[in-house]
Automatic annotation (TrEMBL):
<dbReference type="InterPro" id="IPR036918">
    <property type="entry name" value="Pyrv_Knase_C_sf"/>
</dbReference>
<keyword id="KW-0067">ATP-binding</keyword>
<dbReference type="InterPro" id="IPR040442">
    <property type="entry name" value="Pyrv_kinase-like_dom_sf"/>
</dbReference>
<feature type="domain" description="Pyruvate kinase C-terminal">
    <location>
        <begin position="395"/>
        <end position="515"/>
    </location>
</feature>
<dbReference type="InterPro" id="IPR015806">
    <property type="entry name" value="Pyrv_Knase_insert_dom_sf"/>
</dbReference>
<keyword id="KW-0418">Kinase</keyword>
<feature type="domain" description="Pyruvate kinase barrel">
    <location>
        <begin position="30"/>
        <end position="360"/>
    </location>
</feature>
<comment type="pathway">
    <text>Carbohydrate degradation; glycolysis; pyruvate from D-glyceraldehyde 3-phosphate: step 5/5.</text>
</comment>
<keyword id="KW-0670">Pyruvate</keyword>
<keyword id="KW-0547">Nucleotide-binding</keyword>
<dbReference type="Pfam" id="PF02887">
    <property type="entry name" value="PK_C"/>
</dbReference>
<keyword id="KW-0808">Transferase</keyword>
<dbReference type="InterPro" id="IPR015813">
    <property type="entry name" value="Pyrv/PenolPyrv_kinase-like_dom"/>
</dbReference>
<keyword id="KW-0479">Metal-binding</keyword>
<dbReference type="InterPro" id="IPR001697">
    <property type="entry name" value="Pyr_Knase"/>
</dbReference>
<keyword id="KW-0324">Glycolysis</keyword>
<dbReference type="InterPro" id="IPR011037">
    <property type="entry name" value="Pyrv_Knase-like_insert_dom_sf"/>
</dbReference>
Length: 527
């Protein structure tokens, strides 16, 4: 993975572009979140996804029942054992998502310049002139001239499978709309989005709470993706709910920014959340197309400076049905990496796409190529300047470890940690080499039984760019009383050698707490 980095600001030999990429143990520093569903739920397919670079498995509860997702999760666990690859589990809440209900499941053809009525009466059958929806308050939320978008599952951007409507009249609880483009809606459910309009529904719905308190609680999920996060209070409310559910008090909350309200409150949300997911499908409807890239760059930059993961969605939609992405999509993935994104989230591409493994592999290869021209030096200076002075003790040592690793051309940074915070701080400065995070479990008790922490922290770092966790033997302390106990370091070095990122005569930077002090060591390996 580690190679002499090129810079886009410098001339690049055209011949070097044609050189084939070398296979590596870690497909890319940028992580890939894959949504598991009908096309990607067998042990064999999930194992291949893990081998190809997926490090976080997303379970989308806006569709499917708990039994279906539980079976998929059991298959994931079997695949993890088979492939010997760690994988985090992300639960995506449904949130206040509006849907068109088509009980007959017959395709509905909508003709441009015709009228269609949206009604909250779900007992009525969906027709080209009448679409039942799952929300009775739409008529109170919209007015004449407002824009409504309807699409299947996710917004594809394809005008043959999604439709734009313009509100022409409100009649009681019904909303009359003018159809702006012809489209055919096929399937039982379609997502409905009202541009720049607040829907008076809770962000964490009763259905979400039931799923979290049963399925998520039983399976001890690592990350909660909070759909339609609109303000910091949404995150605080979700965290308070999780805190009452045993081990879920360790679950991280990633705020999913999907509308203008969430975008307007971005800074306060970022401060409260553990990470951010930029849901570009919905944002692309709320924002003019020419403004989407500006928000992406500004949001990712803020996440980078805060040291919190930024996840970008909707990058290779065409690979849902095709083996190769479009040129624009390939460039979009690379630009997300160059912007500083920690992870790429694949939705329909792996959920119901025909080529889930190939999609993950292709995205990983694009990320790896983009990382080769990432200007780490400029980014490092910007990050240090943003933090300002005086730095905290831990941040100072973490940034120094990255600078030392770059100066001595280290092949890897090894970080011993219990909470994962030190490794995340190192990753914040975007080192050009992998960070092997050795997570040392801590023994804790609730007065009834003893348990070890650490598994959550190890898996949660799988969504952070550049961090590759190892769960260590709990008998090894993270904060050694002396620096002579090298047995745990040997485990990390052996893992790095097996992975192919550490070779004889390489230099390795080690970050470790010794007593009350944090220590950075530079080790030169022998044969």
């Amino acid at each position: 993975m580690h190679s002499t980095n090129l810079l886009l600001e410098e001339p690049i030999r055209m011949a070097s572009i044609l050189e084939p990429s070398k296979p590596t143990f870690f497909p890319a520093m940028t992580k890939i979140v894959g949504t598991l569903g009908p096309k990607s739920r067998s042990v064999e397919i999930i194992s291949s996804c893990l081998e190809s670079g997926m490090s976080v498995a997303r379970f989308d509860f806006s569709w499917g029942d708990a039994e279906f997702h539980q079976e998929t999760l059991e298959n994931l666990r079997a695949a993890v054992k088979k492939s010997k690859k760690l994988c985090a589990v992300m639960l995506d809440t449904g949130g206040p998502e509006l849907q068109v209900v088509n009980k007959s499941e017959h395709p509905i053809s909508l003709q441009a310049d015709s009228l269609v009525v949206l009604t909250p009466d779900q007992d009525k059958e969906a027709t080209p002139n009448l679409l039942p929806i799952n929300f009775s308050g739409l008529s109170k939320s919209v007015k004449k001239g407002d824009t409504i978008f309807i699409g299947q599952y996710l917004f594809t951007g394809s005008e043959t499978t999604s439709v734009w409507l313009e509100v022409t009249e409100v009649k009681g609880e019904d909303v009359v709309c003018l159809i702006k483009n012809s489209a055919t809606l096929a399937g039982p459910l379609y997502t409905l989005h009202v541009s720049q309009i607040r829907i008076e529904l809770p962000t964490l719905t009763d259905k979400d709470k039931k799923v979290i308190s049963t399925w998520a609680f039983r399976n001890k999920i690592d990350i909660l993706s909070l759909s339609y996060t609109r303000n910091a209070e949404d995150v605080r409310h979700a965290r308070e709910f999780l805190s009452k559910l045993g081990d879920l008090d360790q679950t991280q909350i990633f705020a999913k920014i999907e509308n203008v309200e969430g975008m307007s409150n971005f800074d306060e949300i970022l401060e409260e959340a553990d990470g951010i997911i930029l849901s570009r499908g919905n944002l692309g409807i709320d924002l003019p197309p020419e403004k989407v890239f500006l928000f992406q760059k500004a949001a990712v930059h803020r996440c980078n400076m805060a040291g919190k993961p930024a996840v970008v969605t909707r990058v290779v939609d065409s690979m849902t049905d095709n083996l190769r992405p479009t040129r624009a999509e390939a460039t979009d993935v690379a630009n997300a990496v160059l912007d500083g994104s920690d992870a790429i989230l694949l939705g329909a591409e792996t959920l119901r796409g025909l080529y889930p493994v190939e999609t993950i592999s292709t995205v990983g290869k694009i990320c790896a190529e983009a990382e080769k021209v990432y200007n780490q030096d400029v980014y490092f200076k910007r990050a240090v300047k943003c933090v300002g002075e005086p730095m905290t003790h831990l941040e100072s040592i973490a940034s120094s470890a990255v600078r030392a690793a770059i100066k001595v051309k280290a092949s890897v940074i090894i970080c011993f940690t219990s909470s994962g915070r030190a490794a995340r701080l190192i990753a914040k400065y975007r080192p050009s080499m992998p960070v092997l995070s050795v997570v040392i479990p801590r023994l804790k008790t609730n007065q009834l039984r003893w348990t070890f922490s650490g598994a959550f922290q190890a898996r949660q770092s799988l969504i952070v760019r550049g961090i590759f966790p190892i769960l260590a033997d709990p008998r090894h302390p993270a904060e050694s009383a002396n620096a002579t106990d090298e047995s745990i370091l040997k485990v990390a070095l052996d893992h790095g050698k097996t992975a192919g990122v550490i070779k004889p005569h390489d230099r390795v930077v080690v970050f470790q707490k010794v007593g009350d002090a944090s220590v950075v060591k530079i080790i030169e390996l022998e044969n």
